[in-house]
Amino acid sequence: MRAVKNLLVLYTGGTIGMLQTPEGLAPAGGFEARMRAWLDAHPEAPRPDWRLQEMSPLLDSANMQQGNWLAMRDAIVEAVKQDGHDGVLLLHGTDTLAYSAAALSFLLLGLDVPVVLTGSMLPAGAPDSDAWDNLAGALALFSQGLENGVQLFFAGKLMSGVRASKLRSEAFDAFAALPRHREGERAAELPTTLSYCQPRSPVNLAVLPMYPGIQAAHVRALLETGIKGLLLECYGSGTGPSDDEALLDALRDAGQRGVLVAAISQCMEGSVVFDIYEAGSRLRDTGLVSGGGMTREAALGKMFGLLGAGLDLATARHWFALDMCGERA
């Protein structure tokens, strides 16, 4: 825990800085001037020394892609290693805020500075907006001292970047760290191939929920797109149709093609424990690796971090099953 003295504010777009257009709210530049004007008008607000950098293009976070995660990672590493910043505040839209927090948690493993993501449900300047409260609250945290790693701050709550999810679309307390079951052996030491120093590449990933009527053809259609990772959102404790041999064969084929197939629970407060039910055991036997109590955001971000580093299937399965930064334990 240490106070940050030289903060980078990385502005990626999102509602916090949006302005009204004829088509609706849209990302807008010039946020640094608005932020400085607000701080000048509120001298009581704590703040470290800071500099703002705008990403290009500025995004509505509904348009967030893997390439944007990689660009954010590069900007953060450059700010820390070349420009001497000792903390980063990332301003981001709320639609994919939890996804980006999770992805960056795995892209920045080993980077010895605190990184906090925040945003707002209403634009800065809108009546009764939460924007300045979230921004000022995050600045206060940097002034007081934060642990290294990626975290998400929203509506007065500081959450792990790998435990948070967006639960509400029309309330200021939109995010929460769900009490999902935590389990998993903590990795004693992470290899350099998974540190922030390791360049990553985009990866073709897919998420598929289990539901009554799911067919083997759906899985095979995804395989034909060339996916490298498939995240299955299973029922309850990790179950799914266990009497559909064609579906089970399709999942086995995925592993034989080198696809990392992992399972999480689609329950908001759920965890995968395959052996409770035969239906879970039969899914496990197709080669699925358990995601334990990971959220969708964390599991997808972890899959991206592992496969984007170029790991082979066996190595990716090994690290997916271990806790790397608090996502499982």
From TrEMBL:
Residue ranges of coiled coil: none
GO terms for MF: asparaginase activity
E.C. designation(s): 3.5.1.1
Residue ranges of domain Asparaginase/glutaminase C-terminal in the record: 206-320
Keyword presence, Hydrolase: yes
A GO cellular component annotation in the UniProt record: cytosol
Keywords carried by this UniProt record: Hydrolase
Biological process terms in GO annotation: aspartate family amino acid metabolic process
Protein name per its UniProtKB record: asparaginase
